[in-house]
UniProtKB/TrEMBL annotation:
It comes from Tuber borchii (White truffle). This is Uncharacterized protein. It comes from the Eukaryota.
Amino acid sequence: MPAPSQIHDSIAGWLSKTLTRAARARLISDEWEDTMEVLPGPEYEGFIGNYAGRKKAPDTAFCPVSGPGRLHLAEFPAVVLETGHTTSTPKLFGDAALWRDGSNHQVKAVIVVKFYPPNVQNRVKVVLTIFSAYPRVNSRATRQKTYTIFPAPARRVPNPSIPLNYLYAGRCPGSMSSRARLTLDLELLRNTIVPYIHERGNLPA
């Protein structure tokens, strides 16, 4: 039976598949490898305001390489992934606020995936929520959009997407279109996490 950490890893695997698809579609160029670090669990500090003194490590961080010659990692990631198995929804949403507000909005989007405890039929509900700068990459306002993964909706819901420019915190390399969008395929997410749910002796809701 996989540990909760393996459930977290399944979401990171979904993002990896998403990037592979984007590369095949030539959405991201070869320059991606030189200008972006996708890091598992790096710890950040230096938050401001109500979050001063806090330290936080996301499950996955998209960290643009910035500065002259692109030799330095940005102070904060541009996009982060947070996965909750035992963590409550309010705590996860609070973490999203920490990333957006505590980084002085240097974090442009927070992807939150929440696995709920199995119900009496051993069925697991899973919900994806995306917090992102709105309506532009440098906006201080945050838009929240929620997508139910399990139970899968009867009608197909359009896939969400994140502008490539958000992944680069507004400084997209010239070899890639800042208007291009990284599609977050919901059906791919379902297919990726189902084996992990089954391995825990549960079923998707």
